Amino acid sequence: EGFFENMDKNPVRAVTWKKCEITGKVGKDALLINYGAFLEKKGKLYVDDFHFYVKDHNAWKEVDSLANSFESDSTGKQPKSWTPMTPEYTITVVNDIPCFGNKCVMIEMKP
């Protein structure tokens, strides 16, 4: 049994940075975990400072290899760990308005 949440029923439409959190139970037989952000329709979406945690007994532990603040990615390029789901969108590391550090990611529909 899988877990799926894309916040479709609770979309973020803020014009300033907003912390968002998704919590769910991933089955022991899971082979893959996808996470990220998506833009519906036209516009720009900025994201920054992703963290991924697992519960080990009674303590939450961060999975360091999945955390992403985009600071080590090259500005103007697609972040190394992100892939657009469709060719209509671009994902670019920018330094326009980061929430943390000096860089964030902009998702934009191609004109």
Quick recap:
With 111 residues, the chain is mainly beta. 0% of the residues lie in helices and 22% in strands.
Describe this protein's structure:
It is built from no helices and five strands. The protein has strands at 44-47, 53-56, 59-62, 89-94, 104-109. Strands 1-5-4 form a three-stranded antiparallel sheet, with no helix packed on it. Strand 2 and strand 3 form a beta hairpin. The radius of gyration is 15 Å and the shape is globular.
Strand count, sense and closure of the main sheet? 3 strands, antiparallel
Helix fraction?
under 10%
The total of helices stands at 0
Radius of gyration: 15 Å
Order of helices and strands: EEEEE
Question: How are the SSEs ordered, and which strands pair?
Answer:
Elements: E1 44-47, E2 53-56, E3 59-62, E4 89-94, E5 104-109
Antiparallel strand pairs: 1-5, 2-3, 4-5
Short key terms for the protein model shown above:
3-stranded antiparallel β-sheet; globular; 111 residues; 0% helix; 5 strands; mainly beta; two-stranded antiparallel ribbon
